[in-house]
Design a protein that fits this description.
The chain has four helices and no strands. It is an all-alpha fold. Bound molecules: zinc ion.
Amino acid sequence: MLALAEDRFLTDCRKQLITLHEILMQELSRAVQDQKSQTGLLVEIRQCEEAIKRIDNGHFGRCKVCSEAIELNRLKAEPTVTTCLSCAADRHNS
Ligand SMILES: [Zn+2]
């Protein structure tokens, strides 16, 4: 049961990321004159691609700092996050 729910969650995240990727690519093609927003968009596109890669290789949802599972709500809101809530908070404080 758990595995099934997890599968569906990953499929949803993947869809969300692919949609986000398409939107970012469109924005990028419209931002040809704007170096600054281009750079920002390229970073977001890369984060998107990396998140999709992590879903495909089974590393999605693990915090890159402490290797604990990232909160599901956090992933739902922002599938490109790479740290759990407490590690993200640590980084902001330091
Ligand atoms: Zn962490």
